[in-house]
């Protein structure tokens, strides 16, 4: 095991849903590559949106005591970040749609941006509309000076009921490759 670490944020409110299942798979692949991995279930937290009080700029931490500050600190200490979100009604939903965490972290000074940090998004939907959600989430990574590794295809899966994603063999293969690439590149940096 190296001293490198990847944090995986799960935005799904379903503890055993498809988003959590694929992030657990990514974490297993990353660990098998010798890199530490931790899945954090944001979907089970009551994350509040930024209130723009700017106290974080004075104090260095957010005044909203909902646990997101601890998560942001773990992300800042990690070498990689993978964010997973379910897509409901055409856009990323759940606790990780990129907005609450990104807005609150962005005001806290340096934020999670760190040249050379790796990561990227994973989205899951029943039938479609993942593309715009994936694009929005990729923009978060790119605008925070992060490196987004490629894979065999887009990091999206089809699956409605828990476990349905495993029927999307092409999608699973692509996301497994993405997790392998994240781990391998982190070890090289």
UniProtKB/TrEMBL annotation:
Domain NADPH-dependent FMN reductase-like: 5-151
Annotated GO MF terms: oxidoreductase activity
Keyword Flavoprotein: yes
Required co-factors: FMN; [4Fe-4S] cluster
InterPro entries for this protein: Flavoprotein-like_sf, FMN_Rdtase-like_dom, ISF_SsuE-like
Keywords per UniProt: Flavoprotein, FMN
UniProt similarity note: Belongs to the SsuE family. Isf subfamily.
Protein name from the UniProt record: NADPH-dependent FMN reductase
Species in which this protein is naturally found: Methanosphaerula palustris (strain ATCC BAA-1556 / DSM 19958 / E1-9c)
